Amino acid sequence: MAFSCISAGELGGLGLGLGLYGSTYLIPLFLQTIKGYSAGDAGVLLLPAGILLGLASFASGWLCDRIAIVWLLCIGLFLFAVSSVWYGVWGASSGFFWLCIIAGVGRLGIGLIMPALSTASLDSLTVDELPTGLAQSPLSDSWVVLLVSTY
């Protein structure tokens, strides 16, 4: 069986994982070292972004059945890229409110990407290929991320 869609999903999942892990680690680090915020303030800043991530994941799963998946992926990547560039260029001069908004925009983008990426990678499989495809899907490597981030 050729699982080229799964391989493309794996590459997309790798990029998504790097972006999510990097921003989850780097945003609080940036807020504490550059902006001088406490750990509690950094957590409060990221709280609305986490809520947006959950809502966007739900909305993206619903939208996967209604619009082309490529649009969800492109919009999500664009939003995450805008958020990352904002932090890189204007982050040090931005206030708490704007940093919270931009973190939310990035998490909104990631929330749009996650369900769409899984759906896109599994969409072209037949019913007989689905169990093997699920074992090789982008979500099956989450234990590797857990292992690497723990040790």
Element pattern in H and E: HHHHHH
Average pLDDT number? 81
User: How would you classify the helix and strand content by structural class?
Assistant: mainly alpha
- Multimeric state: single chain
The biggest beta sheet is recorded as: none
Which descriptors apply to this entry?
single chain; 151 residues; mainly alpha
Verbal overview:
The chain has a domain at 67-119. It is elongated, with a radius of gyration of 17 Å. α1 runs antiparallel to α2. The N and C termini lie far apart (35 Å). The chain is built from six helices and no strands. With 151 residues, the chain is an all-alpha fold. The mean pLDDT is 81. The protein has helices at residues 4-33, 39-63, 69-90, 96-122, 130-135, 142-150. The protein is 79% helix and 0% strand.
Secondary-structure blueprint of this entry?
Elements: H1 4-33, H2 39-63, H3 69-90, H4 96-122, H5 130-135, H6 142-150
